[in-house]
Fold each of these.
Amino acid sequence: MTTHHLVADLSFEARNGADSDRDFDDFVDRFVDELDNLQECDPGIVDPDVVGSLANRTLSVTMGVEAGTLEDASRLFSANVRAALHAAECGTPTWPHFVPKDRAPQVRHRDAATS
């Protein structure tokens, strides 16, 4: 197995129109917590990290994924990011609901030496 370091750039908009910096910041905190929870459950997830722009409602998600091929790593990466996004909603329909603008964000290889 090889650890593949991957990154995806995501942009968000408030689905229900209720959008403030605090709402988005709270959402990002929940998302990061869920990524951390996934890492605790799966030793094949390595060092997830999130950076972004509060003003632009964008995030870059990086994560190492242990897999036999880059294709498998990309699938696992996407599945884990999506699971964390879903979990970050917290099942609260009255809270602001942020969804990715892109249906399938471009996932690319990230050279760990340039991070």
Note: The longest helix spans residues 21-41.
Amino acid sequence: MLRSADCGALRKENAGDQVTLAGWVGRRRDHGGIIFIDLRERSGTVQVVFNPETAADATRVAEEVRGEWVVQVKGTVRRRPEGSENPAIDTGDVEVMATELTVLNRSLTPPFYIEEDADADESLRLRYRYLDLRRPPMLRNLTLRHNVVKYIRDFLSERGFLEIETPILIKSTPEGARDFLVPSRMQPGNFYALPQSP
């Protein structure tokens, strides 16, 4: 099983639960042998703690882990010690004491930080769009779009409407990508183009 819980769903009520989490490594901090990793996926971020006294093998692996690596963590949810809570995140009252760490995929150093207020040039973010879409503002936009479209589809489907998707032939537009041209049967020598956007 890849995961048994979402990172962003863990709360005080989950203290004591054994969980399996998977996601991207956000920030990694080494505090004299004890390592903290912010594990992030689309539901949110949770702090994972690696203590060499309780999980030596997992801590050795955590020493090598870097930002944006994809990992799987097994451990126990616990309340954070008093005074170390983080009110800035939804999971700020809890942390996961890791017992196992598996690296699922390594990553090169990303060209910009994947965080709320990434200070990166827009052209750089567009060049690495697959990374930009991991940023919280972009994720919120995608989630909102998904929820609106799903609501509309459900609303119409409940009323007996049928959704169909047909190819649409339009006038060619100069957008840079190569057009898929369809010859016109009625006007020899003329062509239609399938739209470039879905």
Note: The chain is about 20% helix and 30% strand.
Amino acid sequence: MRIGFIGLGKMGGNMVERMLEHGHRPVIFARTKATVRRYVKCGATGTESLSEMMKRLGTKNRLVWIMVPHAAVDGVLDELLPLLKRGDTVIDGGNSPWTRSVKRSARLKKRGIAFLDIGVSGGPGGARNGACLMIGGPASTYRKFRRLFKDLSVKDGEALLGPAGAGHFAKMVHNGIEYGMMQAFAEGFDVLRKKSAFRYDLHQVARLFSRGSVVTSRLNSWLEDGFKVFGTGLKGVSGSAVGTGEGKWTVQTAKSLGVPTPVISASVAARVKSMKDPSFQGKVVMVMRNRFGGHDPNPKKR
């Protein structure tokens, strides 16, 4: 399948490689020419403009996947819209607010263009080796491209969850849950660290917890890896836990629905507090973010 692909960051670049591995033909565009050249060497078709990208996709029923930060999506759509035709499909695979996805879908629908919002989970490793895809949009459009979604995901790791906005709503809640789980690990390992009489080796404990315990999880394994790489004191890792907003969005949305979210709310508050008062708990959150998402472990020093 020929696919227009915009955005070659940590997620987008790995996704393009997976597409190539499964026999798809991505036609790529990014603002940085060196990045485009890198994936051309892998087999993708590079372009220097959105106009060139669309021409290379042909004239009918074209698919364009946008993989850029959510704040940039509307700008990309503004440039793309004059180049799109009735029957084309646009996918937003970033972490956009679900309300924006609903509006973008309506905007494109007026022109006969289909839209799917896809929450992608699994980090850069998932993008390369098989992700979890939470999809929102028309069932007919989903069915049309389901082979692609199966190729990009782990086994049983893709599903249409509802109409426009449903994919990004689910991803927002997923990330809210992630906030709570990460904060629980941060608090627990801080307690272990403070019990000096037992002199716990936190890497050893994390490794043990990841071997058949009730809290065994991918986050647990990433924390184990973080202690291995940075040491049990997490030297060089910031104690200020940054976030990308989805936890806060989850809390705000839950409040509007009358749903209590004490755990997620507390985890968001903990990150905000850590920005003013760096802590070991902040370090634990940051090292997990680094291991699963490739995020800078100490952005303030950059």
Note: The CA atoms of residues 105 and 115 lie 5 Å apart.
